[in-house]
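Protocol step 4 of 6: structure prediction from sequence.
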Amino acid sequence: MEITFGAKGADITDRFRAYAEEKLAKVTQLLPRATALDVKLTRHAVPHTSVAGGRVEITVHGPGSIIRAESDGPDKYMAFDSAYHRVMERARRVHDKRTDHGGRKRTPLHEAVATGFQQVDITPADPAVVEAVRTGSIPTIEGEQQETDWSPVVIRQKRFPSKRMSVRDAVDQMELVGHPFYLFVDDASGECAVVYRRKGWSYGVITLDDQASEAAAADSERAAS
């Protein structure tokens, strides 16, 4: 895998290059499908002092995915070490991930609701808070509007192009970007689904079932009456 070095306001010395290449060899062992690796060094001065700090950005390019981490430090070696450890942590998650190959275990929405989301390690919102948001008594923030007043609930809306992929690929993408969940379109069923990280190295998949939702709603109405 090719390792490319770049610098802004700083010099890439042979000593630093050798130091970085030796450590980054471990990344190539964990991610053999990676195609390129970029290291960018930026030198900046701490205001009102004579101390020169630096920022190191490490980007690992792979087929259809990217791992990226950056860190600041009092010198380029400390900044590199910090960014390197973050990249290695994400690379290990991808390498050591465990998925259910037997049958893509899914949790129907009505079962999750009936058990209080215990099997998916999700804590539902307080009904009073949800009702307050619905009625407008708690303001929400839409789009990229900046938060001006304090609010216990902040809702930001973002739209992304839909991507069709397998559950395994969705787990890969989630780990590469460092998020606790990932929304995608299941290539096998054509349905919208969410993969999420559970405790340890286990993962879960949540999908929606229209028929089950209607049945659950009917049961709730009967119970209320």
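Step 5 (inspection) to follow. The first helix runs from residue 14 to 30.
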